[in-house]
Amino acid sequence: MSETKVPGLNVRITSKSQLDNIKKVAITKPGQQALFLELDQNRPLAGIIQDICEKWGIMQPEEYAIQFSDSNKQQIYITERSRLDISNGDVLVLSPSPAKTAKEVYITLKEGKPEEKMGAMEKLSRLSADITFAMEFITNEGLDLIKQFVRDSKFHGEPMAYLLKSFVNLMEHGVVSWDTIEPEFTKKVTDYVSSPKHGNKIIQPSLEILESVILNSTQLSKHKEVEQQVTPEKINCHLNTPELQKNALALLNALFTKASPDKKRKINASIQNKAFRNVLVTVSLEVWNREWNAANNAKQAGLWRMTGIHSNHCNRVSLTQ
Q1: Percent of the chain having pLDDT more than 90?
Q2: N or C: which end of the chain has fewer CB within 10 A?
């Protein structure tokens, strides 16, 4: 911002580049009145978080972070890199830092009461999709703890579904090699795929895990473990379940891709029927509809942001100094 001096008058001129670096957002936190901020993208995040904590009288700002509230964002926690995704009109959330949260989740999973562990698993299934949190949780040996729980069949039903979903999310970041997956873990996951009684919420991530073991492991023995324990016939039974069709097809395709010529002929023979072709058509139409709806929703979100944030419950605060 610059000043132009005119006799009797000082005129402040703001350049376009300076305006582009200012994002008008709202910051929320449970129990606090929302703040309406003019957030300067040139300022370090640590300084912005410190200012927010001071406004609310919160101690130890280093233990806090800012999150996106928009579930469509790829990242949950805002970092110096992902802050470029902040747009005018965004509603952001002040929350405990990824490091603090990852440690708390890990300790709760190990030592918490049953109801506390359930809450930690649900939180983990959401936050594990974020690379910043995932790195902290893996560093705390959280991934090893999940594998132990699965191998030991320590949990069932919804808790196990949360654990398997979290495992998929953590591995998708590419931080840990699929070659590290133990045979005992793979065997337990194949058991879930082989029996419909476990329910879709457990079978769906199990199908994803086995597909990734086949496609991403560099060890042939890993492929054999899945191939020997999950036959095409066991996978085909999931094609009648809409929620599992896409993942079942993906696992079949992975098996076919890595199979020997003889095994490829057997897989091909097992899917030569009208019912299988109908599933292919159904899945293709669902993908097309999902992509069309996503594009339409993105346009609507863009229009919403253009209107900015209008709330009678926000305090206007500038964090541009």
Answers
A1: 58
A2: C
Which residues are registered as beta bridge partners of 66? Answer: 94
**CATH number of the domain to which 89 belongs:** 3.10.20.90
**How many domains does the structure of the chain reveal?**
2
Q: Which of 148, 139, 205 is nearest to 172 (CA)?
A: 205
**How many whole angstroms separate alpha carbon 316 and alpha carbon 224?**
61
Q: Is residue 316 part of a domain?
A: no
Domain boundaries, position 27: 22-96
Q: Please tell me the distance from the alpha carbon of residue 93 to that of residue 75, in angstroms, as a whole number.
A: 13
Q: Are residues 66 and 108 in the same domain?
A: no
Q: Mind listing the pLDDT tens digit for each residue in 175-199?
A: 999 999 999 999 999 999 998 889 9
Say if strands 35-40 and 2-6 run parallel, antiparallel, or are unpaired.
unpaired
**Do residues 175 and 269 share a domain?**
yes
Instruction: Say how far apart CA 271 and CA 245 lie, in whole Å.
Output: 13
Q: How many Å apart are CA 119 and CA 314, to the nearest integer?
A: 30
Same structural domain, 187 and 246: yes
User: Whose structure tokens read 């039974």?
Assistant: 237
Q: How far apart are CA 255 and CA 231, in angstroms?
A: 9
Reported as a single tens digit per residue, the pLDDT across 252-273 is 999 999 888 888 888 887 777 6
Alpha-carbon separation of residue 1 from 10, 88, 308 (angstroms): 13, 20, 23
Tell me the per-residue pLDDT of 51-110, one tens digit each, with 9 for 90 and over. Answer: 999 999 999 999 999 999 876 666 799 999 999 999 999 999 999 999 999 999 999 999
Total number of residues shown for the chain? 321
Domain boundary among the residues 80, 96, 112 is at 96
86 lies in the same domain as 187: no
